[in-house]
Specification:
Layout: E1 5-11, H1 15-26, E2 31-34, E3 48-49, E4 58-59, H2 60-71, E5 76-79, E6 84-88, E7 94-98, E8 102-110, E9 114-116, H3 124-127, H4 136-139, E10 147-151, H5 155-165, E11 170-174, H6 184-191, E12 196-199, E13 202-210, E14 212-220, E15 223-228, E16 231-234, E17 238-240, E18 270-272, H7 284-307
Parallel strand pairs: 1-2, 1-8, 2-5, 8-18, 10-11, 10-16, 11-12
Antiparallel strand pairs: 3-4, 6-7, 7-8, 9-17, 13-14, 14-15
Helix pairs in contact: 1-2, 1-7, 5-6
The chain binds NADP nicotinamide-adenine-dinucleotide phosphate (NAP).
Length: 312
Amino acid sequence: MTQKIFDCVILGAGPAGMNAALYCARANLDCALVDISAIGGAPMNYLEIENYLGFNKINTFDLCEKFEQHIDNFNIQKYPYCEIEKIDLTKDIKKIKTTEKEFLAKSIIIATGASPKKLDIKGEEEARGKGVSYCAICDGNFYKDKIVCVVGGGNSALEEAIYLSNIAKKVYLIHRRNEFRADKILQERIKQIENVEFVLNAQCKEILLDNKVYGLKIEQNGIEKIIETDGIFPYIGLSANIDYFHSQLELTPDGFILTDENMKTNLDGVYAIGDIRNTPLRQVITAVSDGAIAGVNVSKYVLNSEKIEIKK
Ligand code: NAP
């Protein structure tokens, strides 16, 4: 029996991937939506979104559930919990080997997102799960009435520090400069919270643990200090999840996939969307928009490729 060739395989079932699948399916493409984890993607690690047009405030889980309910009205084959093992994007027919299944596809949309960056300091690896967490929503409740440190000065750090301030007794927000890059609205909000203390111009040097975290060594204005803490939440940005693609695709110097305005990469039939690409803004709304653009352009690509012979 000959193996089925999908019109498009979408890798990553976050908002970007789900919307790309929706646009592909509406163009009548036979598409598969594949994810290493559950359908929903990175927003499932956050609590709520306040800047998604149409909703003053919406729980991210509820929003992703609405996205999934929407795509379920279309012929989209979903493959959650499939880990990519090997991928060849260079031929006309792309080949993706996963733990569950091998896929052949005329086109690929990569929407595998980005993961939290590590502080890369002594003690961090060892302390993971013993007081260091990259997900306040998942682990925040372990710190009820305790002292926690959040590291970073972007939207994520401020949002998660605000979230943790409702659980922990005290939150230190540690940032390497004396001004935050987070949206002004978050900066104004966090200043009003009594149990959040800013530690600015501070570099993290070492995580101190004795079976579990008890301190964070920092250097502030040239002086080393130890902050006593029960938990440390680094929110210092993202690095692209490109393990299986990096040798085949053109990347930016910091490792994100280069695309043109149509979301096309340097390879024919290969598109990249959402947090994994060279985007100036990594939000659900921009991820969804990338998905729409890619879906439309993939549909055109597949229609055109049907007119020419595809080499396996
Ligand atoms: P980000 O905006 O890149 O900010 C990273 C922060 O960590 C910066 O303040 C940076 O300091 C600091 N940092 C970087 N490397 C560091 C290191 N080695 N040690 C100490 N500090 C370090 O990252 P993000 O906050 O995770 O956000 C990622 C993307 O998601 C952004 O586009 C953001 O807007 C978006 N996002 C949006 C929302 C929202 O709209 N509600 C919520 C969450 C995230 P410097 O400032 O000195 O560079």
